């Protein structure tokens, strides 16, 4: 089985109440996820609030994550941005110890053409010491990486091994599955639609919800990957409301509220994000208790 099949989790970055990085909370989170049976970790994706972190903080978090993981699971680093040359310099400066791949979000805000997106990833692929996973999330970047561009990159660069697709477009998923190289992976970037994506041929998920409920989520994904959708469907449906609540006031405020309730880490986020409201937190807690009773 490919190391990036199954359930990957985009780690939140725990913060202390003074806003500093909570390394004890990060250790708890990593062990919580590994004990929960997930398949790989993604350090400092956008769920990790990377937009609010300094380069020095990122360097320390990456190193600490690799140290605590201790090669127990494959590890991916999130390194992206909308300045190609700056992203390339960050990749060149990255200490790859303990890491297997880099997840790099498609350039945001600039709204590049498809050729611009292709040339951005071409530049990164030619300098990257690790395999690359593309990341298409139009709702945040305000531009969509087309299936044609995704597959063009997949065929042209052997070190571009997968795409995390969060477009929500099944027409797009269909085209990628139909046209991609056989060994190129389509990874879900949306928790709620992972089951039907796997039914189409996706290899799994890079999840947010899995931060809080790693066992429930990864068990469901494993059932999907073995083709047992009849067994997976009740678990999938039991997570629908929790997933809705987790994103109701933005990511990662909701999932951090869940993690605080579970005793894994605190719920502090950095501005401009704010903590989940009391009403949402109470609803999340009730849903976790409901899921735990069913499980």
From TrEMBL:
One of its GO terms (molecular function) is 4-hydroxy-tetrahydrodipicolinate synthase activity. The active site is at 135 (proton donor/acceptor), 164 (schiff-base intermediate with substrate). The record marks 46, 109 as: Part of a proton relay during catalysis. One of its GO terms (cellular component) is cytosol. Transmembrane segments: none annotated. Its main location: cytoplasm. It catalyses: L-aspartate 4-semialdehyde + pyruvate = (2S,4S)-4-hydroxy-2,3,4,5-tetrahydrodipicolinate + H2O + H(+). It is found in: Cytoplasm. Keywords: Amino-acid biosynthesis, Cytoplasm, Diaminopimelate biosynthesis, Lyase, Lysine biosynthesis, Schiff base. Pathway: Amino-acid biosynthesis; L-lysine biosynthesis via DAP pathway; (S)-tetrahydrodipicolinate from L-aspartate: step 3/4. Pyruvate binds at residues 47, 206. GO terms for biological process: diaminopimelate biosynthetic process; lysine biosynthetic process via diaminopimelate. Coiled coil: none annotated. Its EC number is 4.3.3.7. Pfam families: DHDPS (PF00701). Homotetramer; dimer of dimers. NCBIfam families: dapA (TIGR00674). Catalyzes the condensation of (S)-aspartate-beta-semialdehyde [(S)-ASA] and pyruvate to 4-hydroxy-tetrahydrodipicolinate (HTPA). Belongs to the DapA family. This is 4-hydroxy-tetrahydrodipicolinate synthase. It comes from Pedobacter chinensis.
